[in-house]
Amino acid sequence: MTAAHAPTLANVAEHLRDDEIHVWRLDYRPALGRAPLRAVLAAYLGIAPEQVALTHGKHGRPLLAVGLDPSLGFNWSHSGGHALVAVGRHITPGIDLECLRPRARALEIAKRYFGTDEAAALAALPEAERSAAFLELWTAKEAVLKALGRGLAFGLDRLSIASAADRLQLRRLEGDDVGAWQLQRLDIDRCLVAALAWRGGERRIRLATLASGD
Length: 214
Prior knowledge:
Blueprint: E1 2-3, H1 9-14, E2 20-27, H2 35-45, E3 54-56, E4 62-64, E5 72-79, E6 82-89, E7 94-99, H3 106-113, H4 116-123, H5 127-148, E8 159-163, E9 168-173, E10 181-186, E11 192-199, E12 204-209
Parallel strand pairs: 1-12, 2-12
Antiparallel strand pairs: 2-6, 3-4, 5-6, 7-11, 8-9, 10-11
């Protein structure tokens, strides 16, 4: 995983390769709505941000409107004052982001909504480590569901995630072949937990930060 050093949005967007996924970190302010997302997509589409028209899939996933580049797939997530945008060609990426903070009900939620193996793995951890581990599973599940174009209503127990020191692993996805999927932990910041998922072959993930004014 390679981090770019202070690249400009236009320069990076111009060189998006078919074997890459670009992930942009940017500040998030609710008052701006989807304006930052449109600015990123506009650079990849070669148009002005106001020309980026978005629509929604059946389960609410944002999509480019008909007439814009159909090869460009994207997804975004925000938590607190942070946001991530994933962009790739000929794939449908899913990305999820959470601010790291204590979750007093982490085990309770896992027992109710996660698979029994995942809940057991969390229960076996020291309480001090449980919140971070819970958020890692949560963001990984959300990333896969977003890549599927589905929401939480699909059921968090219909997919199973294993977390190891070196990687995340999609162990089960009801109705699909887990071998066809990629799932990556994103090491963005010590205070953030993030994951990226897509159906397809391996790709290079290029991380960059979008500075204000870009």
